[in-house]
């Protein structure tokens, strides 16, 4: 069987939104079921989302969603054709206060006036489509979008939070130019992803309060 071809797209917030929401739901639930360790959310939580919830996720003004699309050999090269097999999301622009973390996280000072701030999150590829640099290319699509979507501000701070046991992903981010800037808790990672409402009222449990996640950052410059 021939290797599929892959393209990388930004999901429109208006065009074919109902269809996109269904494809996104299918991809997310596959990921949460097959690789729960890749997500801070759970299959049970997102399986309960309504269709409107999925549409709202894709159309939210503070989110940009990017998809890896696999097309079988000989399949028509047209919008809407192909299987959604990977995703990554940008959340932002975030305010300086929203982007800030406690001193013990080690993130350092935030440039409140002269930079735009985004969180990179939710990178995932279905197991059958991993390898071949596809995760890196998907991230590059998102980062390139930030550099070309508008001219100002010139400086863009992109941050991500990743589990420490996923060294393959950490090394991929390093090759993309991200550097280690601190350590985070699961509660901080969920809030940074915009999922703070999914946290329990008491986050003192070590599951949420242990400072073991890796914070990485990259600074982009718009031309």
UniProtKB/TrEMBL annotation:
Superkingdom of origin: Eukaryota
UniProt-listed SUPFAM superfamilies: Acyl-CoA N-acyltransferases (Nat) (SSF55729)
Domain N-acetyltransferase: 53-205
InterPro entries from the UniProt entry: Acyl_CoA_acyltransferase, GNAT_dom
CDD domains tied to this protein: NAT_SF
Pfam families from the UniProt entry: Acetyltransf_1 (PF00583)
GO molecular-function terms, A-Z: acyltransferase activity, transferring groups other than amino-acyl groups
Protein name: N-acetyltransferase domain-containing protein
Native source organism of the sequence: Beauveria bassiana D1-5
